[in-house]
Amino acid sequence: CKIAVTLGLSSMQQVLDNLSDLPNSSGAKDLDLIFLKGIIESPIVRSLAKAHERLEERKLEAVRNNNLELVREILVDISPFIEKDSTVAELTGILREPHFQSLLETHDSVASKSYETPPPSPGALMDSTFNNQPVPPDAVRMVGIRKTAGEHLGVTFRIENNELVIARILHGGMIDQQGLLHVGDIIKEVNGKEVGNDPKVLQEMLKNASGSVVLKILPSYQEPHPPRQVFVKCHFDYDPGNDNLIPCKEAGLKFSIGNILQIVNQDDLNWWQACHVEGGSAGLIPSQLLEEKRKAFVKRDIDVTTPSTTGALCGSMSGKKKKKMMYLTTRNAEFDRHELLIYEEVAKMPPFRRKTLVLIGAQGVGRRSLKNKLIMSDPSHYGTTIPFTSRKAKEEEKDGQMYAFVSRMEMETDVKAGRYLEHGEYEGNLYGTKIDSIYEVVESGKMCILDVNPQVLRNL
Fold first, then answer.
1. Name one GO cellular component term (predicted).
2. Which domain, by its residues, includes 450?
3. pLDDT confidence tier of residue 314, bands split at 50, 70 and 90
4. DSSP states of 195-261 as a string?
5. Residue 252: strand pairing partners
6. Predicted TM-score (pTM) of this structure
7. Domain count within the chain
8. How far, in Å, CA of 364 to CA of 397, rounded?
9. How far apart are alpha carbons 250 and 241 in whole angstroms?
10. Residues 379 and 334 in one domain
């Protein structure tokens, strides 16, 4: 008994159903029928049938690949009935929708397998654009955005070869979150209207637009670079509303002295994109270079001298004499004092518990007084060890307050055993800092402040 290779799962099931209905007069033996039924119900045979069906599965083919032309013909045919029938007017609006047109264009491209043709190089595309030559239809993209009136898109523009090009995309803004536009894209139209070459007019047009906004663009095909994590501490106040140099005041970021900002983009030499570490959207801030130039700029001092009595009709103008000074290495500290502080780069560190704080300095610089001031400023956070001594306690002294009193023999034994961080002898008595006392301060939940000799730091 053989089974045809072309037998599919549905046919196999039909054969099984017919086997039980075979009459006895067919001449088939019961043993043969059982054997045939076992073969058909075998998992291996069914798996082979499934694989065969998958390999023989016919691919779907598009009915036609010129639907866009067909829709245009339909629009021409129904145009006389637009004013007479509301249904025709509604259908016309749907067929003229940019999204529907793009869908048909994509379908026709896939159906005609035009996607197999490699796209033109960006250089050739940009050259043809700037030379006012016809742009390939497949190079134009339609981007749809939904927004409310007055909502900022988080994008700025510049003029490049008499075209409006996206200069920057603000991190965290609407355009950045959608990822539909990129730096370098050329804006051609907004809702079917040409944008011209004035960035301010385009900004106002986009700001006042509401609902669905359709942009016609020429892509730049530029790969974005991953941003580098940079955090800075600000050393000046900044309000974009008072800045006449910023390209877009609404895109600026206000900050104060001491604020920590995360720099998310430094591609522009004059304007960086940053956001507060506490959260919020990104905005433009002046770069280090721009702010240094702005703060270092000093207007020239002018003196108007009185006209001389010898007959000069107009007062002569002469600049003040400037004091010239050579740069000397010995005056280096004086020059450093006049260095401009704009931004200070900082690092984001995870919080961790600091067990000890060691004050290091020369003898007599005030380490002990500094330690006492720190402890008095926050006794619940800072603490210190009690020194051990072998001298006898005075009448007003109590053990464990200013000193911990032990015998000389006990102290010498602990010193030999390495239980002291440092020790010394004064007027025949031993003094020292015990390591266990440091652990006691740390285990109490406080930071232990030490003013020990720098040579013992290797033991900590």
1. membrane
2. 356-459
3. very low
4. -TT-HHHHHHHHHH--EEEEEEEE---PPPPPPP-EEEEE-S-B-GGG-SS-S-GGGB--B-TT-EE
5. 284
6. 0.38
7. 5
8. 26
9. 8
10. no
